[in-house]
Q: What sequence folds into this?
C-alpha cells in the first residue's frame, strides 16, 4: 500500500508536496501522483533526480493508498472525494470543496490540530495558503491573549492563479521591454499585471473577492466565530509567494516585545526584525523556503490592545509543510 496520493501534481501545492516528500526521504514507490486527466506516459519530478508516473483519477483504486491530498479545483475534489472515503482513505482537502461541512474540521498544524481527533469521517480541510500564512504566526498570541480582530492587507503573487497567470506576467514583461502591444495578452487578468497592482484576487462574492472572503470565513473556522476579520487583497507582479501587513487586536493588553517573544517560539516561523535599511524580509528572500518570516513588528496604538507586523512566505511551500504535518497526524487516527 502506498503512503500518500497527491491529486493535482503539475503545479502549485501538489507539486511542492512532492518536492517535500522527496526531501524527507519518502520513497517514490510510496507516492501516487494523480491528475484529473493524464495521458499515458506523463511524468512529474520527484526530487532532483527522479520522475514518477502521473496517473489519471478515473479508475484509480483509492484502496491502494492510506492518505489522499486533494490540491485541485473544488469541482474535481467534490467528484472524487466520495470514492476515496468509501475506499477507507484519509482525506486532506485544500480545494475548498468541504469547507462548511459540519463534520469536516478546518485545521492548521499547531493551532487547532486537536480537532483531527473529531474528524469522524477521516477528512479534514485546510485554509487557503494566504490564510494559513497569517494564522500560524498568531497561534501563541491567540492562545494567551485571544485574537479579537484582524485587519489584513495581502499582496499575492500570480501563483494564486497558477501557471497561466505566471506565464502572462512573464509574457507581458517581455512585451513591454520589446515595445510590443499587450492587447491580446490578458487571458487571466482583466488589467495589465506587469508593473501594476490589481485590487482583485479571486472572483467577486458580493463586495468581497474570493480571497477576502476566505480570510473572513476560514480564520473564524480556525480561531473561533467571535473573531472579527477585514481583509484587502491585491495581486502584485511577482511569480511566487505572498506578502501581508497584519493588524491584530487582542482581548487583553499586549506589548510588542511580548508579541515578538511569542512569535519567535512558533515552530516554522522566523522573526527577522531590525529597525534599519534592509532589516526585514521580502518575497525575493523566501522563494523555496519552508518557513514563514515576520518583520516590522510594531505596537498598533490605534486600538487599546494591538500590534502589527509584516509577514512573507513562499505560500505554496509553507502550505505543503503544514499539509504533510497534518497528514502524519491524520494517519494515526484510528
A:
Amino acid at each position: 500500500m502506498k503512503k500518500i496520493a497527491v491529486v493535482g501534481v503539475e503545479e502549485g501545492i501538489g507539486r511542492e508536496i512532492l518536492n517535500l516528500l522527496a526531501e524527507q526521504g519518502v520513497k517514490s514507490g510510496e507516492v501516487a501522483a494523480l491528475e484529473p486527466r493524464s495521458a499515458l506516459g506523463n511524468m512529474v519530478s520527484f526530487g532532483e533526480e527522479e520522475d514518477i508516473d502521473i496517473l489519471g483519477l478515473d479508475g484509480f483504486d483509492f484502496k491502494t493508498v492510506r492518505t489522499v491530498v486533494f490540491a485541485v479545483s473544488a469541482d474535481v475534489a467534490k467528484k472524487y472525494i466520495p470514492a476515496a472515503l468509501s475506499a477507507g482513505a484519509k482525506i486532506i482537502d485544500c480545494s475548498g470543496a468541504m469547507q462548511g461541512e459540519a463534520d469536516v474540521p478546518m485545521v492548521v498544524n499547531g493551532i487547532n490540530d486537536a480537532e483531527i481527533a473529531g474528524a469522524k469521517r477521516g477528512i479534514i480541510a485546510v485554509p487557503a495558503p494566504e490564510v494559513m500564512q497569517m494564522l500560524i504566526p498568531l497561534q501563541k498570541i491567540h492562545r494567551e491573549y485571544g485574537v479579537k480582530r484582524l485587519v489584513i492587507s495581502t499582496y499575492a503573487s500570480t501563483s494564486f492563479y497558477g501557471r497561466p497567470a505566471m506565464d502572462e506576467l512573464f509574457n507581458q514583461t517581455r512585451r513591454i521591454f520589446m515595445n510590443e502591444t499587450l492587447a491580446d495578452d490578458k487571458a487571466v487578468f482583466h488589467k495589465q499585471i506587469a508593473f501594476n497592482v490589481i485590487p482583485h484576487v479571486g472572483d467577486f462574492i458580493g463586495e468581497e473577492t474570493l480571497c477576502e472572503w476566505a480570510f473572513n470565513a476560514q480564520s473564524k473556522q480556525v480561531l473561533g466565530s467571535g473573531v472579527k476579520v477585514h481583509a484587502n487583497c491585491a495581486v502584485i507582479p511577482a511569480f511566487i509567494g505572498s506578502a501581508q501587513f497584519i493588524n491584530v487586536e487582542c482581548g487583553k493588553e499586549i506589548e510588542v516585545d511580548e508579541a515578538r517573544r511569542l512569535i519567535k517560539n512558533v515552530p516554522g516561523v522566523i522573526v527577522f526584525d531590525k529597525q534599519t535599511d534592509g532589516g526585514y524580509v521580502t518575497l525575493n528572500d523566501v522563494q523555496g523556503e519552508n518557513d514563514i518570516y515576520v518583520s516590522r513588528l510594531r505596537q498598533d496604538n490605534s486600538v487599546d490592545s494591538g500590534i502589527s507586523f509584516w509577514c512573507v512566505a513562499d505560500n505554496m511551500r509553507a502550505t505543503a509543510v503544514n499539509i504533510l504535518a497534518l497528514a502524519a497526524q491524520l494517519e494515526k487516527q484510528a
